Every structure is written in structure tokens, then in C-alpha cells.
Amino acid sequence: MRKTVLFLSCLAVVAFGRIIPVPDSAATIQAGLSLALSGDTVLVSPGTYPEHINWPTIEGIKLLSVAGPESTVIDGQYAGVCLVMNWSGLKRATLVSGFTFINGYGPGGGPAGILIAGDATIAGNRVTRCNGIGIYLDGYSPTFSPLITGNEVDGCFKEVENYNYGCGMFINGGTGTHPEICYNYIHDDTLRNSARNYGGGIYCDAEALIYQNRIEANVLTSDTSANCRAYGAGIYVEMSRQPVIFGNLITGNRCATDAWKYGAGIRMNLYAKPVIVGNTITGNVCAGPHMWSEGGGIYNDIGCTTYVRNNIISGNQATSGSGIYNESGSGGVINTSHNDYYNNALYGCSMGTGDITQNPLFVTGPGGAYYLSQVAAGQAQNSPCLDAGDTLFATSPLNLDSLFRTWTTRTDSIIDMAQLDMGYHYPGGILLGLEERTTLDARPIASISPNPVVSGRVRLTVGGTSLSRPAVLAFYDAAGRCVGVWKPLLQNGTAGLDLQSLPAGVYCYRITVGKATYTGRVVKLD
Q: Is residue 76 located within the same domain as residue 165?
């Protein structure tokens, strides 16, 4: 209660909207949203809310939690979809952030966790243990471009008798639509017990921008019928679509059926024309006792033209084309250059300019196990993928070359400013999904308060600092771009800051004090 009152008292001087606290001013989240107007914030206290929420046809409402997804749960109780935002008039100013959506149910294998028909922003949530599709994007407007960023989608499952389409995320937008899917962690989602299983991590039927996601350990299984199929355990691209898939880590996804197993990492359907650049696609497996097993890393179908550059495609498994299987005899085309195909075979396509087959020498760093070994970062030798990539092109609305130069393949997190390295680049201290990684030389944690920020003034507190010590505080937006840097002088471990220059939104921050770094998440209200 005291924290809610503090938010209200601080907001009294802000003219951009009201805060509606739940459960203080409204007993349920649905009731809070029914009171909200454009620009208002429904602010939810910790607790479990057994609800099936229908979003009002009002643009610009923000639904935020006080304490984050670990302690703020929307429980669908397997009785329906947790959150339905079925209005095409929503824009990105509409924001949902800081919740766990659990136990949603999608009749017939449809939407179960979150359904979005407009351009809302879904940021920093967890969607888990849903029977159906975790996050379902459904918009055919030519301008359909929701932002799905910093979420974790895991443990979702579907069991549909004939056709299973999409489990972690289903992007249903059509030609010319550009949903932006970035910084998400999509893992351990399962399509099972069906004759047809398409897209365990992401099912993409749009011209989506899919970047800086970790797509791991998603599984397609099926019944024992003679025609059972598993297509695209990591990502499935629907026919004729032209998504841009760049800077993702796609690992450990598995197609496991008794019959057709195509594309454990990425599978393109008929006449698709995706761009696949700067990803690490490794350890994906097409496995099962009988019949066809093709394209452990990538399967390129009939008539598809796929642009493959600057990737590391290694250690994938399939009977044919463990790295890439291309239907070259049926019009499939792979334009490949500057990739590392270590411990992988190509079927229906050949090595291109700058392609290599050397051990990429992965090493473990602060964000995971797929950094590149580099002498400058303290390792014994340089990876052959270092400076071995090619310059990338601009893809509206993002410039790929510039984005990769804000990310890192080094364990010391120095960004890739020379010739581009091959493979996945870690976001270098930015949060990925719900994971907050911290390296400390002093164990006490740093914090920013109040959070959410209800005015420009905040207090930075860092434990274990000396009486007077400089710090660096950097903020990053949903696309991983640095949007502000402050260099306060800590006095007894604290400093006051004015963040008024930051627009409203959800940010990741990184605090550096000496050799210690601290990362976290903060919400700034209007």
C-alpha cells in the first residue's frame, strides 16, 4: 500500500495520465482497464490474478506491474486465453509489461497466452505452461507492426489431432506486414501427438523482423501414423513470405517423428524468400527411426530463394544436408557467402564466397556459451570466424550493419567495431528475455528507485562502494540501442539523477562501478 501511495503522490504533478492501482482502486486487472483512458497506466501489485482479460478499444493504455513477472501472475487456469487484445487500432504506445501469463488455453490449439491484433508493445513478460500458442499475432493490415521484445516463452504445448501450427509464437500477418520480434527467449515449447507439426519456436506467416532472440530446445513430435511430419522446430517460414532473420541464437531444437523431419533449425515453405544473416544455428537435430531426415540446420523448400550470410551453421544433425538441405531440383536457391559450415554437410547447394568449414572455437562468457575465442579478450587463440563476415545491407527500418556493431562476440563485451565477425552477437550487457545476469566484484546489488519512474528524479544506490566513487549508468531501449549515459559520483553508495530526457517506456540499464557491472530493468512512465 505504501508503495502505491508513493506512486500516486508523485504522479500528481504529471499531466499525461492517471495511475489506476490494482487491487487498491480496482479489484481486478479487467476492472482497472475498464476505468482507463488513453494515456492512463494500470499498475498492478504483486499477486496471482485468475483472469481472462479483454483489452478495451482504447489506444495508449499501459498495463504494468509494480514488481515484475516473478511476482505478478495472470493465471488462465486452462479455461481460456489469458489476454486478448483483439482491436486493430492499437499502436505501440499501448504497452503490457512485467507479468507472467500462465495456464492459458487455446481451443483447437489456438491462442492461449496472449492474442494481439494491433500494434501493441509486449515487453518483459513471461508466457509459460500454456495449452496452445504462447503469443499469437493476428493482423492483416498493411501496417501491422507490433513490437514483441524481451519476453520469455517457455513450456507451452499443443496437441491437435491433425495440424499443429506454431507453439511459442505464431506470427499471422501476411504480405507486407512487419511485426518486430526481438530480444525474446523462446524455449522448451512442444508440438506433439499430431500428424502435422509446423513451427515449434516461431511460426512465421509475415514479413517479420526476427532478431536478437534465443530460440532453444523446442521440440516437434507426433503420433505414429505413416504420414506424420515435423517441419521447423526452431522457426517455420510460411510460403512466399520474406522475413529478415538476423542475429539469433538457434540451438538444440529437435524434429523427432517416425516419418518426415525437415529443418530442425529453420524450415522454409514453398517460394519463401527469407534473409538469414548473422545467426548461430548449432546443435539442432532431425531424428527419428524411419524415412526422411533432411536439413538439420536449414531446409530450403521448392522454389524458395534464401539469402544466407555471416552465419555459423555447425554441429546440426540430419541424414541428408545436416547443415543445409536445398531442393535445388525443384527451384530452390541458396545464396551463401561468409558462413562457417563446421561439422555440417550441404545438400543441393555449394560453398560460396568467404564460406569456411573450421571449428568456430566457441567459448563461454557472461551471456552464454557461444562467444568466439579471441586473444584480445583473454583466450589462447582467435576463432576463424573473427573478422570473417561481410558487410551487410540496410533493411528498412533497421540497418543490419549498424546494429551488429552495437553487439559483441567477445567475452569482455567489447562491441564488434572492425570487420564483422560471423555468427550470433550477444547484446553485451543488455537483458535477454527475463534473464538478469550480473558480474560482481562486490556482492551487494545496485538498484534504481522508484521503479517504475513516475517523474524524472531517481536515486541510484550501489552497495559496497567507497565514500566517493564514480559510476557509469547506461540505458538501452527495446532494440538494444544505448539511449542515454549518466556518469554520477556516488556519495556513500548513492547518487541522485534526473531521467526526464528519457521518453516513457521499458528500458534495460547497466551500471558500471570499477570492474563491477550490474544490469536490470526499469519502467519510465509519461
A: no
* Residue ending a domain, choose from 84, 101, 118: 101
Residues 173 and 205 sit within 8 Å (Cβ to Cβ): yes
What confidence tens digit (pLDDT) does each residue in 462-491 have?
876 666 788 888 887 755 667 889 999 888
Residues in the chain: 526
Going by DSSP bridges, is the β-strand pair 41-44/398-399 parallel, antiparallel, or unpaired?
A: unpaired
Q: Give Cβ neighbours of residue 2 (< 8 Å, ≥ 6 apart).
A: none
Global pTM exceeds 0.70: yes
Q: Tell whether 277 and 134 lie within a shared domain.
A: yes
Q: Examine residue 312 and state whether it is found in any structural domain, yes or no.
A: yes
* Distance separating alpha carbons of residues 176 and 525, to the nearest angstrom: 32
Q: 80-105 burial by CB neighbour count: b if 16+ within 10 A, else e?
A: bbbbbbebbebebbbbbbbbbbbbbb
Q: Which of 165, 91, 190, 176 is nearest to 142 (CA)?
A: 176
Q: 143 and 91 share a domain?
A: no
**pLDDT-based confidence at residue 28 (cuts at 50, 70, 90):** very high
> Measured between alpha carbons, how far is 314 from 344 in angstroms, rounded to an integer?
6
The CA distance from 2 to 19, in Å, is 15
- Indicate whether 114 belongs to any domain: no
CA distance 148 to 425: 20
Is there a contact between 19 and 37 (Cβ–Cβ < 8 Å)?
A: no
Do 239 and 338 sit in the same domain of this protein?
yes
Beta bridge partners of 395: 398
Per-residue DSSP letter, 307:
E
pLDDT(15) > 50 = no
Cell of 464: 559496497
- Does residue 218 fall inside a structural domain? yes
Report the DSSP beta bridge partners of residue 470.
Answer: 489
Nearest to 149 by CA among 199, 115, 186, 112: 186
Q: Express each pLDDT in 31-43 by its tens digit.
A: 999 999 999 999 9
53 strand-pairing partners? 83
Q: E strands along 327-405, which residues?
A: 333-337, 346-347, 362-365, 368-372, 394-395, 398-399
Is 68 found in the same domain as 160? no
Domain extent, residue 257, equals 129-355
- Integer-rounded Cα Rg, in Å, for the chain is 23
Q: Give Cα separations from 409 to 322, 340, 363 (angstroms).
A: 25, 15, 10
